[in-house]
Amino acid sequence: MRTFRACTRGGFCFLALLVCLPISLRAEDESPDATSSPSSQTIASESSQTTVSETTQTETTQTQTTGTESSQEVPISEGSDKVGLGMFSRFPIHVSVSVQGGYDDNVNTTAIDAQGSAFVNATLLLDMKMGSPRTTVDLSTTTGFNYFFDNADTQYEPNLNLTLTLQHKASPRLIFDVSVYFSYQTEPNFQAGLGTNRRNGNYFFTQDRLEATYLWLPRFATRTSYNFTAVKYDNISTGIFEDRIEQNFGNEFRFLAWPTTNLVMEYRFMVVNYAHEGEIIFPPVFDQFGNKISPAVRLQRDSTTQFLLGGFDQAFSPRLSGSFRGGAEFRDYDVSGETSSPYFEANLSYRLGKDTSLSWTNHYGFQEGDIAQSQGVKSFRTGLTGSHNLTSRISASLAVYYWHDDYSDFQSGAIVTPGFTEDSFDINLTLGYALNQHLSAQMGYDHTEVSSGEAIRDYSRNRVWAGFNFTF
After folding, report:
1. What is the pLDDT of residues 279-330, one digit of tens each?
2. pLDDT tens figures, 55-99
3. Of 67, 65, 84, 87, the residue nearest 75 (C-alpha)
4. Fewer CB atoms inside 10 Å of the end CB: C or N, the chain?
5. Nearest to 459 by CA among 91, 50, 77, 110
6. 20-24, 50-54, 312-316 — which is least confidently predicted?
7. Where on the phi/psi map is residue 79: left (φ > 0), alpha (ψ -120 to 50), or beta?
């Protein structure tokens, strides 16, 4: 627990340093020839063509962070897609204020005695963009809440998040990229995919990435990365098997086979540490004569995982780009031993001017378990997000997510809990109408459906809402 808290505090200190960094670098960035060399243009071009998965994640995060309450791809938080973009002036700070009201027919995401409630939502979005020829920074934060009129248990829901992206061209060959995301919310987040697929109280999570790309030769580059992820639930009954820190170290070897194609070999090493590792999650079970049937079950999820991957990044056209990684992952649990699984991830991104954008992501491999009995789960997850300006005033956005999770058998003493499969489906649709340059009206519909081999985990949820946002 002390390690978990220390890392969380360290993350906030790291964020403060990143915010100050571009300011201190700004004076040196004013040099007009900082990025004018051919080699600098080469690496910039390569980066823009080949970092498809990262670019797709960043663009989806910005869309979803301004997207739906329950969905996300970076991560990504509730209610943010219903906030205006605020891009009407050159002032570096843009502000959007939104107010919505609606009805949720299953606030607590339960299979039995679902409770519906009317709700209101208020959200404030601040976004700042600044930069120079060598350094660009985008910082945004969302502050909001939901209030449910008929739900005595959780009337107030927080929706707080902060997103930072930074790129610095240290030299014609070396580029640093940083992305940071903090969120504190209640809703399940199908885009981030870090917590449970149902409401279990307020929780905090962060997804952060630092990478360095270096061009060794005109056709050969390496990209070294470090990813930090943390999850912390307020509710100890969920946090005892969900609170954790994930650290992922990776290195890519990239070969420019054709002007639009990069071939990639990649190695990753991931370390997962749970805050409550070793604590009792189920007490021992005794029969009527006092004989122990099953010993106490302790949390045993700490692990290390190695990934061996190959793939490509491809620019199919100026509008269409994609990436693929495939291979195997080898997981070693500190207590229960080793296991392995095929692994793949794929991303496809399409953009047609300012009016249309589309992103499709896919992933198969191990995920951290979201029930107490499960160390991990083999999961296929896919998400499709898109937006389109139907006219100069009318816009629409859509986000669809599907998870298929396969839980294995769990044995404790003489008691065997059979495995099961579970399918989760989440869709979010938003329509907007611009009344004028600053004011727009919006309405939306959200639907979540979970179908599980454990009937008690089934639930269906519908939410409709409408409101206004003001941008300046």
Report:
1. 888 888 887 888 887 788 888 889 999 999 999 999 999 999 999 999 999 9
2. 333 333 333 333 333 333 344 344 444 444 333 346 688 999 999
3. 65
4. N
5. 110
6. 50-54
7. left
Distance CA 402, CA 406 (A): 13
- CB-based contacts of 69: which residues, under 8 Å, 6+ apart? 77, 78, 79, 80, 81, 146, 159, 187, 428, 446
CA proximity to 383, closest of 234, 189, 212: 189
pLDDT of residue 375: 79
What residues does each domain of the chain span? 2-471
The CATH class that applies to domain 2-471 reads mainly beta
Q: Report the SS3 class of residue 393.
A: coil
**Token pair recorded at residue 377:** 């789960």
What is the C-alpha separation between 83 and 161, in angstroms, rounded?
13
Between helix 52-65 and helix 38-50 the angle, nearest 10°, is 60
Is the Cβ–Cβ distance between 408 and 433 less than 8 Å?
Answer: no
Cα–Cα distance between 460 and 440 in angstroms, integer? 30
Q: Flag whether pLDDT at 232 surpasses 50.
A: yes
60 close to 385: Cβ distance less than 8 angstroms: yes
